[in-house]
């Protein structure tokens, strides 16, 4: 893995180079093993929280981890193109628009003991902007090369906080053209609904059940693309003890192995169907 500046990452994409790099401030990493018409992202994977924010934050490290999406980056790491966030959503949320990306409250609790300085806010928002400059560059390049692309927007959620039965997988589609992409969405649901994982729960997948796909990452790509679909995909935290944070590595590995095969297969179905539109 390389450590590159924002400009160097953008230039490598524009030159269609393959590379694996972390941005020089370590806020996110990007891997391009091959230029293919599909991308996997984990925008809430990160846990790093700048040290100069620790004393000013009411939320403990455990409380922050509970609301993050640990190991979602590892789950997609076997795919050709990945975007993986390393900073915590509690510093700035990549799945929110810039004007709301810095929390004042989080899950019913005030986040900051004292208001953040303009300097700290500007630093966080610059990281947010840097990430989306890379997203846009990659999106434009892939649509230029292939005509259509598909992004898999990977998240996880705390299933034990629900007082009803909830699915292992949820696809949020409220912000996408469901008429145009109905077949592809249904195919993705059927794949996730039928996979086998080393867990006690029955694996099920629903659409717009616990989440509807209203995140900024999806909206940004949709509004800046000509022919790209984003599938916001949630996995319940069946791969860990969500209350303690203990990871079940055999489950994470199983998801990673299955995604490596099924995302590639599904993305090729998408491309065969939509690349000439």
Report on the structure:
With 277 residues, the chain is α/β, with parallel strands linked by helices. It has a single domain, classed as 3-Layer(aba) Sandwich (Aminopeptidase), CATH 3.40.630.40. 36% of the residues lie in helices and 19% in strands. The strands form 2 sheets. Strands 1-2-3-5-4-8-11-9-10 form a 9-stranded mixed sheet, with helices on both faces. β6 (105-106) and β7 form a beta hairpin. The longest helix is centred in the middle third of the chain and has 29 residues, at 118-146. The two termini are 36 Å apart. The model has no long low-confidence stretch (mean pLDDT 96).
Labels describing this entry:
277 residues; alpha/beta; Aminopeptidase; nine-stranded mixed sheet; two-stranded antiparallel sheet
Summarize the topology.
Elements (H helix, E strand, L loop, with lengths): L1 E3 L1 H9 L4 E5 L4 E5 L5 E5 L18 H7 L4 H4 L5 E5 L19 E2 L2 E2 L7 H29 L2 E9 L11 E4 L5 H17 L10 E3 L8 H9 L3 E9 L12 H26 L3
Helix pairs in contact: 1-4, 5-7
Concise structural overview:
The chain has 277 residues and is of the alpha/beta class. It is built from 7 helices and 11 strands.
- Order of strands, widest sheet: 1-2-3-5-4-8-11-9-10
For the secondary structure, the number of strands is 11
Proportion of residues in β-strands: 15-25%
Q: Give the CATH level 1 class.
A: Alpha Beta
Tally of helical segments: 7
Runs in which pLDDT lies below 50 for 5 or more consecutive residues are none
């Amino acid at each position: 893995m390389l450590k590159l500046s924002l400009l160097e990452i953008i230039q490598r994409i524009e030159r269609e180079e393959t590379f694996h790099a972390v941005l020089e401030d370590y806020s996110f990493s990007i891997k391009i093993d091959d230029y293919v018409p599909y991308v996997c992202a984990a925008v809430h994977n990160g846990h790093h929280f700048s040290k100069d924010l620790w004393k000013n934050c009411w939320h403990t490290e455990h409380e922050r981890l509970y609301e993050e999406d640990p190991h979602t980056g590892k789950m997609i790491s076997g795919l050709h193109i990945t975007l993986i966030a390393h900073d915590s959503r509690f510093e700035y949320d990549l799945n929110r628009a810039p004007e709301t990306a810095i929390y004042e409250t989080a899950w019913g609790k005030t986040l900051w003991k004292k208001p953040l300085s303009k300097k700290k806010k500007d630093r966080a928002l610059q990281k947010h902007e840097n990430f989306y400059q890379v997203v846009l560059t990659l999106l434009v390049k892939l649509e230029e090369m292939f005509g259509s692309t598909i992004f898999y927007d990977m998240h996880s959620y705390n299933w034990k906080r629900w007082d009803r039965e909830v699915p292992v997988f949820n696809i949020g589609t409220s912000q996408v053209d469901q008429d145009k992409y109905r077949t592809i969405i249904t195919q993705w649901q059927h794949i996730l609904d039928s996979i086998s994982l080393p867990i006690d729960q029955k694996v099920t997948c629903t659409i717009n059940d616990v989440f509807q796909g209203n995140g900024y990452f999806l909206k940004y790509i949709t509004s800046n693309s000509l022919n790209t679909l984003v599938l916001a995909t949630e996995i319940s935290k069946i791969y860990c003890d969500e209350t303690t944070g203990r990871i079940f590595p055999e489950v994470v590995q199983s998801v990673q192995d299955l995604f490596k095969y099924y995302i590639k297969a599904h993305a090729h179905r998408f491309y065969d169907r939509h690349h000439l539109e």
